[in-house]
Design goal:
It is built from 13 helices and ten strands. It has 268 residues and is α/β, with parallel strands linked by helices. Helix 1 crosses helix 13 and helix 12 packs antiparallel against helix 13. The chain is globular and about 65 Å long. The structure holds 1,1-dimethyl-prolinium.
Length: 268
Amino acid sequence: ALGAPAPVRVGSKEFTESEILGAMATQALAAGGVPAEHRRALGGTRILWEALLRGDLDVYPDYTGTISEEILGGAVRPDEEALRAALAPRGVGITRSLGFEDTYALAMRRDVADRLGVRRVSDLARLPALRIGFTSEFMDRKDGWPALRARYRLPQRDVRGLAHDLAYPALAAGEIDVTDVYSTDAEIGRYGLAVLEDDLHVFPEYRAVYVYRLDLEARAPAALPALRRLEGRIGASAMIDLNARVRIDGAAPDAAAAGFLRAALGLA
Ligand code: PBE
């Protein structure tokens, strides 16, 4: 083609952390001299994965447990090497862990959990009247509500789907008693929620990685080295702080990402 090379297309899922990580990849690529554009908040895991396979995207952030359960159907351990081997025949690679895990967990208001004596997910088995609000993806995922309900024999019938951002105000207002949270959500600390112990270990590890098309290496040789600069660089508390910048302080995901790249990596 004539002129400038086509930009690398970075995608993100429709939640704050994914948008921040998408912005960070886009900015790290640009800082490495690789033109890149961010197609933000496209939808859930399946939308992103299919766009990557089709070639509509080159890179997006995902999590080892999600790749293992939701993308590969639970057939491959959520271990980086095993996932890499399983994804390579599909023309897909993953970076090493960015440095944190973001696992699913169930959470309740602390006063409600204390009053009902709930500390572990198994404590929910004797409370059939609890009102539950789950994010839509969690309702349907193999590693979500179907797995929890079966493993813990949970009896609740009042279970509805809602957008992740709405779960926290609904919990605070007492409209629901239990929701699924992501362990790096800033609201867990902000609302002082009780996070229930997954005492039967249903949830796998969810280490954050970038998922990319292997053909990117030939098309933009500087792209992978630029993304790899983020490997191991984002700890859980740094990610919680970044989520707080956006969800609590109202910063744009791009601004939060830029601030981190400047402070932690010296990238302009
Ligand atoms: N999460 C939390 C992951 C899985 C656990 C929602 C950030 C995801 O698949 O997007």
